[in-house]
């Protein structure tokens, strides 16, 4: 079973993407997003899809415009993650057959995202809401709603978030920073996976 962790590779370049992607997937993380404010992000997505498209879900983060959904889909991406709730982006994502994970912070945003067809919710910034904020939000969400904590959630506090009902996590700088090689990224990925498994046990 795939672990409920999204690797956020902000700042990655197309030339390094395949090796870093392989290291992350080898560690057990099989969903990868390239934020669109990275260098040549569509080229990185295409490179990751060519290398790992059969074994991982590759897509984009920081998707802010509807036309970007089409560009990601055309590059082979299968998941769209945004920092905000934009119903038009969600609708276009679903029309293209992609997974939709918009960012939400309030009950209004969360329910609007679900009404628009989101597959799951990205609670962002997680550091502002905290596990207590997620627990309070959960009370008004439909049963079965998937919520991933992003920003302020990581190996040091997976347990607190899981206890507050987090279904998964998006992990950025704790996993990858620009200039980091595949060896270090893979080692970090293995530590994150081990911490998640321990917290979720």
TrEMBL record:
SUPFAM superfamilies: Aldolase. InterPro entries: Aldlse_KDPG_KHG (IPR000887), Aldolase_TIM (IPR013785). GO terms for molecular function: 2-dehydro-3-deoxy-6-phosphogalactonate aldolase activity. Pathway: Carbohydrate acid metabolism. Its EC number is 4.1.2.21. Keywords: Carbohydrate metabolism, Lyase. CDD domains: KDPG_aldolase. It comes from the Bacteria. Coiled coil: none annotated. Signal peptide: none annotated. Homotrimer. NCBIfam families: PRK09140.1 (NF006600). Belongs to the KHG/KDPG aldolase family. This is 2-dehydro-3-deoxy-6-phosphogalactonate aldolase.
């Amino acid at each position: 079973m795939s672990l409920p962790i999204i690797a956020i590779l902000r700042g990655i370049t197309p030339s390094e993407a395949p090796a870093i992607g392989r290291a992350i997937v080898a560690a057990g993380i099989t969903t990868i997003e390239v934020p669109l404010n990275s260098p040549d992000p569509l080229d990185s997505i295409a490179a990751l899809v060519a290398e790992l498209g059969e074994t991982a879900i590759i897509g984009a983060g920081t998707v802010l415009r509807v036309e970007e959904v089409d560009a990601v889909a055309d590059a082979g991406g299968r998941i769209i993650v945004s920092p905000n709730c934009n119903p038009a982006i969600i609708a276009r994502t679903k029309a293209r057959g992609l997974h939709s994970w918009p960012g939400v912070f309030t009950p209004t945003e969360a329910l609007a995202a679900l009404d628009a067809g989101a597959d799951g919710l990205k609670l962002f910034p997680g550091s502002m809401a905290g596990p207590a904020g997620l627990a309070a939000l959960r009370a008004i969400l439909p049963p079965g709603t998937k919520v991933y904590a992003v920003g302020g959630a990581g190996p040091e506090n997976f347990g607190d978030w899981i206890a507050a009902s987090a279904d998964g996590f998006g992990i950025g700088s704790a996993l990858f920073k620009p200039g980091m090689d595949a060896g270090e990224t893979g080692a970090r990925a293995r530590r994150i996976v081990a911490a998640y498994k321990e917290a979720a046990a």
